[in-house]
Amino acid sequence: MNRPVRRTAYHFGMRLHVGCAMWSLKSWQGRFVAHPLPSRERLRAYAGWCNAVEGNTTFYATPARDTVETWAQQTDPDFRFVLKLPKVITHERRLVAVEDPLRIFLNAIEPLGPRAHALWIQLPGSFGPADLPAVETFLRQVPTSYRYAVEVRHPAFFDDPRATAQLEGVLAAADAEWVPFDTTVFFAKLPTSAAERDAWTKKPRLPRRSHALTDRPIIRYLGRDAVTETVEGWQHWVDVTVGWLQEGRAPTVFVHTPDNADAPELARRFHDAVRARVPQLEPLPEPDPVEPLTLF
C-alpha cells in the first residue's frame, strides 16, 4: 500500500510534471524546436514542451557550474530536473567513500536552486539486498536540502518480499522515493526496429512497481517506437497518476521510447490524458511555433 503523504506547501496549483530522457535530440530539430538552434537555447525551447527533464548526462561527468547556471537561466523555478548522480558515486564506489565527488557535484548544481527536484541514485544491477547498509549510510549523510530518489535493478528487490520491505524501510526513513523504470510494455513483444533491437539488449527487464513512498513520486516509462502502442501501454500510469494527484501527491512522469523521436509530444499527450480526468490540473506551457524545414 502507498504510505501516507507528507503534505507540502506549494506556491502553484495542482501540477503534474512530465518530461523526456533528454532536452535535445537531432530528430526534434525543425519539428519540436527551431533549426538551427544554438546549444544555449535548446533547453529553453524544450521547456516550452515539457516541465521536467531527466539529467542523464550528469551520470557521465559533473557539469561545470557556469554550464548549470545557463540551465537555470533557461527554465522557470518550477521546472524540474531529476539529476542522476555521477557513476563514480553509484557504480564505481557504490556509495562508499564518496564525500569528495559528492561535494563537487553538489557545488556544481547549486545554481539550479528549487529546479533540482531530486537527486537520482541509479544503482547497478549487481547492487543487491546485501548492499542496503551502504544506501542507508549514504542517505543519512547527504544534505537534507535535497530530495533523493533511488532506482534499483537487482531482481531480488522486486521478487523477494523481504528485500522489498527492507529497501522501502531504508528509503522511507530518509523520505526518499523509489523510482520504477517500467519496461513491461516494451518487452511485451519482440522488437521491430533498429532502435527497439538496441534497447532490447540494454534496458532492464523487471516487474512493474506502482507504489509511491513520498509525496513526490517519479515514474520512468518505456513504450515502443509505435506511438499507438506507447499510448495504449501507459493507461496503467494514467490511472495511477490520477490517483496520486487526488491524494495530494505531486508526481513526475518521464516518457521514453526506444528512439525518443516523438517523446516531447508523447509527454504532453500523457499530461493531456491525466488532465482530462483531473480538470483542475495546471496546463503545460505552450511551445514556441517552429518554422518547417526548407531545402534552402
Automatic annotation (TrEMBL):
Gene3D superfamilies: Protein of unknown function UPF0759
Superkingdom field: Bacteria
Pfam families, sorted: DUF72
Name of the protein in question: DUF72 domain-containing protein
Species, as recorded: Actinoplanes auranticolor
Organism phylogeny: Bacteria, Bacillati, Actinomycetota, Actinomycetes, Micromonosporales
